Amino acid sequence: MSYKKYYQGFLTANAKVQHFACHSHHYWPDVTRAAALQYWDDSARLVDDKWDYIFGEKVPKVQKQIAGILKLQKPEQLVFAPNTHELLFRLLSCFDWNKPVRILTTDSEFHSFSRQIKRLAELPQIELVQVQTLPFADFTTRFAEAAKKLQPDLVFCSQVFFNSGLAIADLTAFVTSIAAVCQATIAIDGYHGFMALPTNLSELEGRIFYLAGSYKYAQGGEGCCFMLVPQNNGLRPLYTGWFAEFGTLAAAKTSQVQYSKDGYQFAGATMDFSALYRLEAVLDLYHAEGISVAKVHQHVQQLQQAFLAELKAQQHPLLNEQKLLCADLQNHGHFFTFMLDDAAKVAELSAYLKQHGIHTDYRGDRLRFGFALYHDASDYDLSCLSLRRGE
C-alpha cells in the first residue's frame, strides 16, 4: 500500500529527491498545514483566553493520544516542552550538585544529552560512566553490570540509538535488570523509538521517565516534545516555570514553591503550542485512516528489505551489508547506519549521493539512511553508486 497521498506538500516540494534523512528531518503530512493555520485562528479568536482552551482541551487530548500509543493508564503524567533538552535539564536539576552525583549512560546518546552531561562532568562532584554500545550482542548485560558497580543516582539510555539504529529489544526487561541492582532514577530517551517501533510502557509506568517528541517519526515537526513522569516521585525540579504551578494556583500560599500533582510538575513556562496542534492532526489522521505504529513498522521493514536488495545489486565496496550496524532486523530502528573506516570518505560519499538527489546524513564515520511511510520501494534507485565501485 502507498501512503504518499498524505504527504503531497512535502513530496511535491522535493520531487527530485530520494529522502533518506527522515530519521532526522521527517516530512510532515498535509494535515499539519491546516493545523498550523488553526492555531493562528484560535489565537486570534481567543487571545488571552486561549490558554484555558489549550490546557483544558488540546493538551488533555494529545496526552490521551500519546498514552494510547504507549499503553499508559495515566495520560496526565505526560508533560510537554519545546525540546527534550529542556525536560532533561529539569530532571537533572532535581539532584543536589553540591554533593557527589553518579550518572550512568552510554557512548551513543543524542547531543541534547551527551553535550550537556559532558559539560556537567567537568564539575568535580559529577561522576560520569559511559558504557560502549558496541559490541551490541552483550550491551544490556554490560550495562546492568556497570549499574551494579557504580550504584548511579541517574541512569539515562536510549531505546533506539541515534548513531546506529540499534534497538533495545525488550525495554521492560532492560529496565528491570537495572532496577534489580541499584536504586537509580531511570530515564529512557525514546525519540527514535516513539511512533516507529511498537512500544508498550504499561509495565514501566510509574517506574521511568520517558522522553520523546514530534520532530521525527511522529511527523509533527519541531517544538513539541514530551516526558512521561512517574507519579508521586517526590522530586522538586530546581529549573521550574510557572506552568508547573497548574493545579496549585488556587491553594493557600506557602513559603515553599509548590508543584503540580501530575506530569506538569516538570513543566516550564510560556511556549508556542502550534507544534502540539500539528502533532494532534497527525495522530487524528492515523486514527481516522487506521494507521497503527505496528503497520508503520511493517511498512518500513518491507522498505528496508527492498533497500538492501537494491544495495546488493550495486556491489559497492563501502555501502554493503558487511558495513551495516544491525543486530536484528526485526528489532531495529527505522534507519540503517553504515560504519566505514574513514570519516572523510563518509562525508564525501554523502555529498556525492546528495548531488544525485539522494539525501542522507552522517556522523563521523557513520552514514545513515532512513525509511518512512511516504516511501515506496519502487522509487529506490541507487544506480549512481555503480559509478564509484572502484573507489
- Provide the succession of SSEs: HEHHEHEHEHEHEEEHHEHEEE
The CATH topology annotation of the largest domain reads as Aspartate Aminotransferase, domain 2
Which CATH C-level class of the largest domain is it? Alpha Beta
Taken from the alpha-carbon principal axes, the silhouette is globular
- Uncertain parts: none
Number of helices: 10
Structural class: alpha/beta
Describe this structure in words.
A hairpin with a 2-residue loop joins strand 11 and strand 12 (about 365-370). Helix 2 packs across helix 8 and helix 3 (about 50-70) packs across helix 8. It is built from ten helices and twelve strands. About 35% of the residues lie in helices and about 15% in strands. It has two domains: about 5-30 and about 295-390, Aspartate Aminotransferase, domain 1, CATH 3.90.1150.10; about 35-285, 3-Layer(aba) Sandwich (Aspartate Aminotransferase, domain 2).
What is the secondary structure topology, with strand pairs?
Elements: H1 8-13, E1 18-19, H2 31-46, H3 50-70, E2 78-81, H4 84-92, E3 101-106, H5 111-120, E4 126-131, H6 139-150, E5 154-158, H7 171-179, E6 185-189, E7 209-213, E8 225-228, H8 274-289, H9 293-314, E9 335-339, H10 343-355, E10 358-359, E11 361-363, E12 366-370
Parallel strand pairs: 1-10, 3-4, 3-5, 5-6, 6-7
Antiparallel strand pairs: 2-8, 7-8, 9-12, 11-12
